[in-house]
């Protein structure tokens, strides 16, 4: 199947989800005006209450979908408590959506170090200065912390904080949705089989 077929109405014929996702993300990268890798991340807190926020996808392959965060943030704590999460990509200009859910694993230190080193220097300082998701008494307090860590790391490389790393959602299910007239949308869902392969179903819109 060609990439053109994967991104047209024939996407429902795709035999596995990752090549299809790659084709759709490529289209989004070419067409979406801002952050085509933006994705809504859903977690559950200790009271069982759902929580959702936008993050940026920083990598994916047949093993799963990777994003990075402060593990002491709300989403970090919630994921570490359950090791489960879900994602929803919505590319409005393409009228497409992809939903992902499954167990979560922590990326290796080598993966986290490699990505952290690619971040702008100011973002690396921010990873040290921000007590993410916790109460902030004033903007000045944040700016003071940034100044302190900037002075501390004025020379040389900035190491990755131990509390900052990445999560990988290992999908047990991936659903693709494409808008069609009269709300008769195309939906296909891939579900991980016991042997590690994928089972595919078409869903009513």
Give a brief rundown of this model.
This protein is α+β, with helices and mostly antiparallel strands and 205 residues long. It contains six helices and ten strands; from the N terminus they run H-H-E-E-E-E-H-E-E-H-H-H-E-E-E-E. Strand 8 (173-178) and strand 9 (186-192) form a beta hairpin.
What does this structure look like?
It is a single chain. The chain is α+β, with helices and mostly antiparallel strands and 205 residues long. Helix content is 30%, strand content 33%. It has helices at residues 3-6, 17-31, 74-82, 109-118, 121-129, 139-152; strands at residues 38-44, 50-56, 59-61, 64-70, 84-91, 96-106, 164-169, 173-178, 186-192, 198-202. Helix 5 (121-129) crosses helix 6. The protein is elongated. The two termini are 24 Å apart. The model has no long low-confidence stretch (mean pLDDT 93).
Shape: elongated
Mean pLDDT over the residues: 93
Instruction: Say how many strands there are.
Output: 10
Provide the helix percentage. Answer: 25-40%
Please work out how many helical segments DSSP would assign: 6
Radius of gyration based on Cα positions: 19 Å
Q: H/E series, N to C?
A: HHEEEEHEEHHHEEEE
